Amino acid sequence: xxxxxxxxxxxxxxxxxxxxxxxxxxxxxxxxxxxxxxxxxxxxxxxxxxxxxxxxxxxxxxxxxxxxxxxxxxxxxxxxxxxxxxxxxxxxxxxxxxxxxxxxxxxxxxxxxxxxxxxxxxxxxxxxxxxxxxxxxxxx
Length: 140
Prior knowledge:
Blueprint: H1 3-12, E1 15-22, E2 25-32, E3 35-37, E4 40-46, H2 50-57, E5 60-67, E6 72-82, H3 86-95, H4 100-106, E7 111-124, E8 135-137
Antiparallel strand pairs: 1-2, 1-5, 3-4, 4-7, 5-6, 6-7, 7-8
């Protein structure tokens, strides 16, 4: 799969599992990425959540995107960095109605936006199950 096809796949399959670590303990949770592009993968959380604290302590993360119909899984590892962009936060809130009442009550600052940078992807399918892994750089 090419870099462009991987980015397209992620944007078509935004639900993912995101892994972080706290000390020696791994943590994984279901997430909904906002978008992927040449600069990385955008996602958000609340600044009071464990996820926010875990990333601040250790920004290395891995996200796994899966399409059940095709059986394709794309794992992306990289470094999560905070994105300070209120216009992006407003766009996220506009596209995710469940955030609106939270932001109206607590303000836009409650939302923490991250970009996974230095992304390297590995594509898995049933057909390549036992083949050596191939890593594809999708962002700087």
